[in-house]
Amino acid sequence: MSDAPKHPADPANELASDNSAIDPRDFRNALGAFATGVTIVTAMAADGRPYGVTCNSFASVSLNPPLVLWSLGMFSQGLTIFQNASHFTVNVLGASQQALASQFAKSSDDKFAGVCWTPGLGNAPVLTDCVANFQCRAANRYYGGDHIIFLGAVEAYAYNRQEPLLFARGSFGRFIAENGNKSS
After folding, report:
1. Residue 52 and residue 104 in contact, taking contact as beta carbons nearer than 8 Å
2. Residue ranges of region Disordered (predicted)?
């Protein structure tokens, strides 16, 4: 007999919320204890219109080669835009950009109204005044439960030393260093 974990034949089915003993709302509350940065991921639609969505599922994957990932819900309004885009930009928001995060989190015909940006690689919008941006070639995508995970090969990036915007327990926040000072 082996102590190796047994994997179900169809992990996607095993993890479906109607087949799991885990309560989805309570699980979401537990995940909220993990503070994340806040990003707006952008791409250019095939019709030439910019598109973006607020996202906190961004993570680094590899330094060599430089890879990052983020995920988007299967039923998201902009899913086909990101699936068809050659490039996307992950724009990391600063502490003063809460309103921008909220603007891109809501459904709207023109999320870019009043937003300053420049076209980046593949024309994916690079938002002005973010604390960092990662311009990525869409390298691959994977199905993960009710989300699609986008893997990006970073081809250009920029950053500054401004304070990042954080999100935890359903609210925006700021980083306080151990010495009690805000990050700088």
Report:
1. yes
2. 1-20
- The span from the CA of 43 to the CA of 138, in Å, is 10
In contact, 151 and 139? CB cutoff 8 Å: yes
Spell out the domains of the chain, with CATH numbers in brackets.
37-165 (2.30.110.10)
Asked if omega into 164 is within 30° of 0 (cis), the reply is: no
* Of 42, 179, 64, 58, residue with least CA distance to 124: 42
Beta strands in 29-181 (DSSP E): 36-37, 39-44, 50-55, 59-62, 67-73, 87-92, 117-119, 125-127, 132-144, 147-159, 166-168, 171-173
Alpha carbon distance 52, 41 (integer Å): 5
Query: What is the rounded CA–CA span in Å between residue 120 and residue 117?
Result: 9
